[in-house]
Fold each of these.
Amino acid sequence: MAQDIESTLIEKRVFPPSAEFARGAEVKSMDEYERLYARAAADLEGFWAEEARRLDWMQPFTEVLDESKAPFVRWFADGKLNISANCLDRHLAARADKPALVWIGEPGERRTLSYRELHTEVCKAANALTELGVGAGDRVAVYLPMIPELAISLLACARIGATHSVIFGGFSDTAIRDRVNDSSCKLIITADGGWRRGKIVPLKATVDAALEHGCPSVEKVLVVTRTRETVPMVEARDVRWETVVPLASAECPPVALEAEHPLFILYTSGTTGKPKGVVHSTGGYAVGAQYTTRLVFDLRDDDVYWCTADVGWVTGHSYVVYGPLMNGATTVMFEGAPDFPDKDRFWDIIEREKCTILYTAPTAIRAFMRWGDQFPERHDLSSLRLLGTVGEPINPEAWMWYRRVIGGDRCPIVDTWWQTETGAIMITPLPGATPTKPGSCTRPLPGIFADVVDKEGRSCGNNAGGYLVIRRPWPSMLRTVWGDAERYVKTYFSEIFVDGKALYFAGDGARRDEDGYFWVMGRIDDVLNVAGHRLGTMEIESALVGHVDVAEAAVVGRPDELKGQAVVAFVTLKSGRVASAAVKDALRAHVVKEIGALARPEEIRFTDALPKTRSGKIMRRLLKEIAAGGEVKGDVTTLEDVAVLNRLSAADEE
Ligand code: PRX
């Protein structure tokens, strides 16, 4: 209770940007923000066309937005460009020697690549990929640790028009197989291993296991040497990066690609058992990533910008690689964990590299808070001028701690709301303009028409909870779900209609306060957000029921102080199987094998039946309440067997 009152008091506080920060920013006041917003509202196409013209086009576009086949939209469709040229070539005249990428390995190595050097590496890698048979329109899977070759691989694919599909290094061999097969990848780029908390993550071995399960489309595996562990190489299939890339020519003209050419696929969890391949375009995505990085992070030429996200997630795509490089920034990339070798690793990096911008996740901030102020206090963090958060709602206490302890009460915080599907930041403060409130992502960016609506698509009144929707298309929106256009429509454009037209809805609930500020409440579908990672409850359930002992499973989220949500599984065993700690361990291991360690259930509760409605739907709301340890409230008359519920409530962990 005391905590709640405190949160409410903090939420009511407002932090305007300092006059000094505002002076140097591109958008300097709320008046300017409102003007930009109104301009985009009055002329959406003109607004975005102007933004798009900041990029280098190999063939200028004459069309801006084509909505004739909505929700399948096209942006800048008759224009041609190459995003790698926008990240690299166009900076060579003015900033060839400026560091583009500053990389820090977990064991402590440091490597800097200037724009010129990164350009050379990307050209060589692009030529090597071509030699290995990859061309425009092919898919390339990337399963790498956070090393420079990861950024190089993305840009090399983009340079030749191959569509990349990055698979986060925490996913298992089964998860790799499913993703590789779904989009028929021709080649996989991986490494012998990566470093995580002093241990080697055996990436190549996991890829080998994935290929053993059967990935018929894969012709080659390109293996970067990172840890120098001996890894078996399969003849004719596996090729070492260092035997092809350094020898390749450094001349590689970028391919002129249509704006709608698919730049990348990124798999993300939804409400079914199968992850969706979210497809992003080249031109619209480039415009969105460039625009948001410039405005939200208020980038200046002398910034040292660090986004701590892994490139395995969309945040790493847009805000470690493409956004900062298109803007000619210096982007920092770190391979390891925040607590290795000690819990001050981030602060050590900020001090050494003199980082000016830090963009990280609320889960990390909550962990830092718990570890204690002594770790940041060991370091000089005065280089920082701007802080950001992404991936989940941030609780006001963590926001205040971040502001005070890391930001020295002087750095604005941008709490950025967006999704894999949106490609780029959507709702966020502009650091020189927007007065911030702890816990609110504030207002939509100019050009983004976000709203909170009811089922009928009517805007909700102040502080009334509803569905967070986007009313108009935006350039960096996803274009489809790979190989499943129907699923694209069904998932994102089938919930809320206005005048027969579907609004984009991707699963979040929100409210808007009297100042028009958005407060995102989190997912209202069956998607969990565990430590900022998105997981489908159905995906974990189907992994569990794939185990020989399991008859039925239901997975829900439980509020978790550190991770936001924790995975709780209710499991019914097949008759004759006996619940035990050993079975629990086996089930956990099975989920890790099927999906990856990030999906490991925190808690498994055995039950002899699951509560269901008469139509057979599992009553998740009740399970959520049980998982949270709360009392079961509300109407249970639709329950098939109330006794089941009572037994569940009473059942202890075993
Ligand atoms: O629920 C929202 C939450 O993360 C979801 C998107 O997850 P993903 O596609 O993995 O992308 C994460 C990085 C962009 C959203 O539907 N989310 C993201 N940012 C915020 C957030 N929730 C509240 N506040 C945020 N700033």
Amino acid sequence: MELKSEILHLLRNSQDYISGQELCNKFQVSRTAIWKNINSLKEEGYDIGAVRNRGYLLRETSDVLNGEEIKRYLHTKYMAGHIIFQKEMDSTNIRAKQAYKENMPEGTLVITEKQTAGRGRRGRMWDSPQGEAIYMTLLLKPAVHPADASTITLVMALSLAKTFQELYSLPDGQEGVQIKWPNDLVLHKKKITGILTEMSADMDSIHFAIIGVGINVNMTEFSEDIKEKATSLRLETGLTLPRAKVVAKAMEYFEADYEKFMESHTMKGLKEDYEKFLVNMDASVRVLDPKGEYTGIARGINEKGELLVERDGEIIQVYSGEVSVRGIYGYV
Ligand code: BTN
């Protein structure tokens, strides 16, 4: 282990201050070496208190995001088995496509603190400032028909809903986390997470699917233009959790849910769970169908992940276009 990791390890396991002298003696290095490494840890975001005559203390409020921190919390077989972390990237989706070209294995996770060209759905940008959110993309190589691959987006939405419910002790229903079909996560009717899935395929097989996820974890403010529609887990729950812990838990749930999806290439084993979180369930929805808009009542999803909308006593399967939900994000 390099000196910096060893110092971190020691600080982590100590309830009390550790003096600089103690660290020098333990590692047989100079005060300057200790001081330099402590500074470097601070630059990475570790909240280390330094008090004259007492020494150093790692505070619990540290929210450092990097591969090492994620691995501390991780209990998976292969999801996030490889982690590509950089402090800054253009977009984790772009980097994940490159990872595929570099032959990185299924389950490779690309993650960053800040994106300079974060992308949302429908060509929109995804504002990605430093420090309080999660921007990550998972590389998958599912052996499924290309037509079934987009369902994986719903699987991810479900895994994230379970993650937030567990970590933030949220109840079922409107007070808890909900999914706006197909894959936005909302809390108290505001968006907390978006998912952008992209894939490359030929006629009957998938080369890769990449699932890009942006989670508003610890932000405390939003710009004027989005604060009516967006919020963070911290703002809604009052809890500040380490982002690395959120990532690790999401990987665990996703690994299990993805395995279930792969059994049938459908939402068969996950549909019930998904519907429990569905904000649109039995609610009026407006379907923005290119062939003509209409209003109906959402009645859940089918195994393909399509939204079932009841209209004049008939059930319509909505598989494309956008569904706008009454009362969500303040729009009708
Ligand atoms: C949406 O429009 O709701 C989807 C937003 C997806 C944003 C994430 S952030 C990590 C990954 N990299 C990107 O450039 N976009 C996705």
